[in-house]
Amino acid sequence: MSDPVSFPRPRRRAGPRARVAVCAVLCLVSSGPLAAAGPAPTYVDLVNVPHQEANWDRFYGLQDHLAADFHATCAGQACDPLRRLWPLQLRCSVRAASAEVAACRWVIAGSGLRVLGSGVIEDDGRVWQCALPLGRGLAVDHFHAALQVQQPLQVRLPGADRTLLQGLHDCLAGPGDIP
Question: pLDDT tens-digit profile of 40-58?
Fold first, then answer.
C-alpha cells in the first residue's frame, strides 16, 4: 500500500455574522486612539489643569489648607451649634478653553449625637454640598494664589459677592441631606 495522499480541505467561508464581528473588531482596533479621544470636553476637573493630573499636588494641598482653616474656624460647633462638622471633599470644574474656575463644591458632613433617657443614641447626621462663592472669569492660578493666605475662609475671591466662610454659613443654614 502506498501512503495516503493528503488533499487540502476546502475552507469554510465565514458566515455573515462572523464577517460583521471581524469588521467591527478591525474598526475598533484601527480607530482606537481616535475613538477614545473624541471631542474635547468643555469642562475639566481642577486637578487636570493644564493636563491630566498636572495640578494634583497643588489642588490637594489647597483642599488640606482649606480644611485646616475650617477646623480652626468651626471648632467647638461655631459653624453649626447642633453638630460637629467635618469637611469631606472639594471639587472644582474649570472651563477647558479659558482655564477659568467655573464652580466649586465642598461636601461637609455633620453629626449631632445625643443619648436619650432610654439609652437610645439619637443621630442627627447631615451632609451639605456647598458651592463656593466664585466670580466669573477667575483664572486657575489666581484662584490658587488668592487662597494661599493664613485664613483662606475669610477670602472673598475676585468677583464674588461674599467670602468663602459667608458662603459656607449660608449653605450650612440649610437642611442638608440625611445620609
Answer: 899 999 999 999 999 999 9
Residue 144: alpha-carbon gap to chain centroid: 17
Name residue 26's amino acid. Answer: L
With b meaning 16 or more CB within 10 Å and e meaning fewer, what string describes 12-44? eeeeeeeeeeeeeeeeeeeeeeeeeeeeeeeeb
Is pLDDT above 90 for 16? no
Query: Is there a contact between 167 and 131 (Cβ–Cβ < 8 Å)?
Result: yes
| CA distance linking residue 124 with residue 75, whole number of Å | 18
Domain count, the chain: 1
Is residue 90, in this structure, part of any structural domain at all? Answer: yes
> Which backbone phi and psi does 46 adopt, to 5 degrees?
-55, -30
pTM of the model: 0.75
Q: How far is CA 43 from the centre of its chain?
A: 12
**Residue 5 located in a structural domain:** no
Domain-located, residue 22 = no
